[in-house]
Amino acid sequence: MRVVLLMTCVLALSACGNRFERSGSTRGASGDISRACLAADRSAASTSLCNCVQGVANAELSPSDRSRVARFFGDPEFAHSIRISDTTANDAFWRRYQAFVTRARNTCG
Fold it and tell me: Distance between CA 71 and CA 75 in Å, rounded?
């Protein structure tokens, strides 16, 4: 399950392409997710891609949700623990996270 979750995060970033330059709403976005994205050193990561994903996160997620998502990059076990958790709060977060991933793919890809 951990590998599947990590691959979901990687695929979300890999699916994002170069549309950042055409989208003024994400231009210059920076934050925890952008820094974590770049620090994760994945081959698909670029400054423009990571900034685009951050811009989508800024629009879609609360600051606490963004902090949790940023942690996913360096701690896939944390993501896995949230995914398999049976709490209402974690289930709600996971739904917001999945919506964010979809929006990031569509916006940045």
Answer: 6
Q: Which H helix or E strand runs over 39?
A: helix 32-39
User: Which residue is associated with the tokens 């952008």?
Assistant: 34
- Residue 31 has what pLDDT? 93
DSSP state of 25: G
Return the higher-pLDDT residue of 33 and 27. 33
Q: Quickly count: other Cβ atoms within 10 Å of residue 53's Cβ.
A: 30
b/e string for 67-104 if b means 16 or more Cβ within 10 A? ebbbbbbeebeebbebbeeeeeebeebeebbeebbebb
Measured distance CA(51)–CA(44) in Å, rounded: 13
